[in-house]
Amino acid sequence: MGTDDASTPTAMGSSASDDAAGSPASSGAADPSMSSGGTILGQAMDVPVGGGMVFPAAKVVVTQASAGQYKAFSAVCTHKGCTVSSVSGGLIKCPCHGSAFKIADGSVAEGPASSPLPSVPVKVDNGKLVIGG
Ligand code: FES
Predict the structure, then answer these.
(1) How confident is the model at residue 23 (pLDDT cuts 50, 70, 90)?
(2) 3-state secondary structure 64-113
(3) Which residue has a Cα nearest atom 2 of ligand 1?
(4) Who wins on pLDDT, 111 or 53?
(5) Where do the structural domains in the chain lie, given as residue ranges?
(6) Among residues 112, 94, 98, 111, which one has the least CA distance to residue 23?
């Protein structure tokens, strides 16, 4: 025992691919409860007014720019495809290169992304956020 010299971190720095994304794992707990043709994301009341919430499993971000104005957008950043990670200051933020999108319409507030986040139809059903219904 004791001859485990197999640590060979093959880290040749010659890959020119900008693939900084590559983090599909968000701790598993996806529970896509289906309800009348839609997917329940969570409680509408959990989305703060003037802010939003990212649902990484569904790759959707839901915002509430003003009371009752729920909107949903793809959480996949239009720059290189990272999943946006947070919503603050009225902006949906991507952790990879700092792009920010407006909660009201998904438009770009800060680059490097140049395209808005595509919107996703969302509705509130019995206090729950439902997409795809
Ligand atoms: S992937 Fe580059 S800013 Fe989002």
Answers:
(1) very low
(2) ECCCCCEEEEECECCCCCCECCEEECCEEECCCCCCEEECCCCCEEECCC
(3) 97
(4) 53
(5) 43-131
(6) 94
Amino acid letter at 1?
M
Fold entry, domain 43-131: Rieske Iron-sulfur Protein (2.102.10)
* Residue 26 to residue 57: CA distance in whole angstroms: 7
Which residue is listed with tokens 């595509």?
118
Neighbours of 113 (CB within 10 A): 22
Pocket around ligand 1 at a 6 A CB cut-off: 77, 79-82, 94, 96-99, 112-113
48: amino acid identity, one letter? P
CA atoms within 13 A on the CB side of 96: 19
Q: How confident is the model at residue 21 (pLDDT cuts 50, 70, 90)?
A: very low
Q: Give the distance (Å) from ligand 1 centre to CA of residue 77.
A: 6
Tokens in use for 123? 């509705």
Q: What is the pLDDT of residue 38?
A: 87
Helix, strand, coil % over all residues of the chain, rounded to 5:
0, 35, 60
What single DSSP character describes residue 18?
Answer: -
